Amino acid sequence: MMRTLLIANRGEIACRIIHTAQAMGIRCVAVYSSADQHALHVQLADEAYALGPAPASESYLNSKKIIAIAKQAEAEAIHPGYGFLSENADFAAACQQAGITFVGPPAQAISIMGSKQAAKQHLQKADVPLLPGYHGQDQSLAAFQQSAQEIGYPVLLKAAAGGGGKGMRIVHQSSELATEMAAAQREAQKSFGDDTLLLEKYLAQPRHIEVQIFMDQQGHGVSLFERDCSLQRRHQKIVEEAPAPGLSAKLRERMGEAALRAAKAIGYIGAGTVEFLVCKDEQFYFMEMNTRLQVEHPVTEMITKQDLVEWQLLIAQGEHLPCRQQQLAINGHAIELRLYAENPQQGFLPATGTITHLAWPEISHLRIDTGIQQGDEISIHYDPLLAKIISWGATRPAAIQRLQQALSKLQLWGITTNQGFLYRLLQQPEVCHGQTDTQYVERVVSSIQQPSDQHRNIALIGAAIAWLDAPRSPVHYQTTDPYSPWRSNHAWRLNQPNLLTLTLHHGQQAFTIAMREIDAQTLEVALAEESQAYHFWRKGNVITLQTTDQHRHSLITHYQLGTLGDASIKVQCAGEWFHFQQQRHHQSAEDETGSELTAPMPGSVVALLVKTGDAVTKNTPLLILEAMKMEHTIRAPAAGKVTRFHCQPGALVTAGFELLDFEREDVESSDSEVTA
């Protein structure tokens, strides 16, 4: 019987495992890096041990130290979660040799599925549909060029040892292959310690549908149905749901049977996910198998009313599957959103910072899986996933509506997230009707990357109302009388109309709002050459704004008064946080045309791609930055030359760090934008 469990992971998945294990009466041991010594999973565990410095290679990937800690803590089992060592066959074997139960499949099964070449060889014998591709041992450019030519472009390069979008590149023509291979190999080596690649035919607009399977040690298996993970960007999932919209019962059965054949072909035990690409004609092809618990497992839990972590722990102890196939049924619909620390308005670059305020929405049938709390610092060392927001509904529209409500109520300050982007994504007609594919986000991203002007204007009015009701700075009044009208920001005037003009700055734009107070809860507002009356109500920091056509907006506001009388106002509208300043200094145009190129996010320098003095054309790659396991290329903003580098490969840089000096051929006509 399992009495003590060590969780060899961090963040939300470590917290998720702890909740179930402790409910089963199992003592939980956490491990942590120096960056995570105050993390939530450390606080929740019954006991915690330090692993080492912040980099994963020196902490969460230190398998020998993790096993040594497990022995010291007298843990009978280790749960690897997902990522890090979860699909490391050597680690699973080392646990077994140490007499510790690895909560996962046998090392041999991990090894087979971890090598996409070996996996396809086994699955071909099991009659599992496979995509045309190359998965040979010869990793030379020549071998890949020959195979790509035979398969036909476009092709997809993939890391043979892992997934999650790491080490994955689409190649549209032969001239791109060498560059993309080198980039994919670098990412694969950093993420999985193995730069082996494979090649597949690239399907332009398939759906990404995966099947959750479980096998026990007695050889019994079940399918817990499918999840649709088609909404993704950069090959990383953003939204997952179960069941897959519009999937026929016949196709569901065929895919479930194929997934179980794949598992049985390699002697699988425990939780696994078999991923397929599904075409419009209902043909499906094996993509990969994840030999672990998936990030998106909560949607399966919500529609089956099963605890998959509990299943894992029971099977690891040798027990039979808790249910047979005929006992499992789909109940309602569940959708999961991945809340990332990233900036959608800057190409989804990873974001870092300190969480200064955090309040999760409290809504029925809403689940939040997270490992963060107020005061946490989000660093460059780990995946930018902050939380998973999961909703259940009797119908798919009900689940979507619940998620939109959750995004409109979530309060997370101090770090940039994709919260508003997710809200806008859920509003798209194709998403609402379940008519998406793996390329959908790329097609619509330019239209939903930025919040709409309409929502910004509504937020402006909310900011103005928050300013009206806020106390004035001592800079603006001389009286000490708390009841004096001069202490108020309202437009009170003796024998004059209640008129007020307020200028607020948002980014580099200034907006002037003219307001006339009709009564205590009604304003006539003139903004952008339009005038309209608004009714409003306040409850705490929530403002309800209603237009004359009865359209209501719920806004969350946060007002902060500076020592010099400057007001900083945050307003959340439609899931997006807008930041306004009553006064703001603007950088001069001369300042904005400097010759330095700066880091768009904190990270480490991977490579310098040109030499000092090299003449380059616009968009020439200059250097590569790596942050949160992903590479970003810094390109030339115009034709010119690099006059000096301020960094070398391996250097850690902060956001805004001057990477290099660049001399443009023609400063007047150059484009000062940095692309990454």
TrEMBL record:
Residues 588-663 form the Lipoyl-binding domain. Its cofactor is biotin. It holds the Pfam family Biotin_lipoyl. NCBIfam families: PRK08591.1. This is Acetyl-CoA carboxylase biotin carboxylase subunit. The keyword Lyase does not apply. One of its GO terms (molecular function) is acetyl-CoA carboxylase activity. Residues 1-446 form the Biotin carboxylation domain. Keywords: ATP-binding, Biotin, Ligase, Nucleotide-binding. Signal peptide: none annotated. Residues 120-317 form the ATP-grasp domain. Its EC number is 6.4.1.2. It is an enzyme of class 6 (ligase).
